[in-house]
Amino acid sequence: MLIGRSILTLALSLAACSTTPSIAPKQSAMPAAAPHVVARMWHGRVLEARRAEYRSYLIENGIRKLEQIPGNLGADVLERTSDGVSEFTVISYWPSLDAIRAYAGSDIEKTHNLPRDPDFLLELEPHVKHFEVVLSDRK
What we know:
With about 140 residues, the chain is an alpha+beta fold. The chain has a domain at about 40-130: Alpha-Beta Plaits. It is built from 4 helices and 4 strands. It has a 4-stranded antiparallel β-sheet. The longest helix is centred in the N-terminal third of the chain and has 18 residues, at about 1-20. The radius of gyration is 27 Å and the shape is globular. About 10% of the residues are buried. The model is unreliable at about 1-35 (pLDDT under 50).
């Protein structure tokens, strides 16, 4: 009797499934191919006590000028503080490596420090890094 009930329950379950409208699996929404963009990343560290002063200097004397360079697509400034040291990361965006070469010269990996960076930064990093932006999905 128990086996009969199990078979009946299974049959009813299968019948119910076949009458339930099928739900198509959610398709992955891959973004359309974005235009080619290169991210140029620079990093620097200052003492926490000079964080606000350097942030203002960086934005006014670095970012604002950078954004005026032909080809520049904008920039992000990231900041974090830990153990008395504040780190800044600047990511600027460009349509190509050639656009970067137009302002940075042939050695695009060379850091272009601001005039007062030696007064603020704990060390002067000699190189920047470049990345291909494969997804930019901020909302």
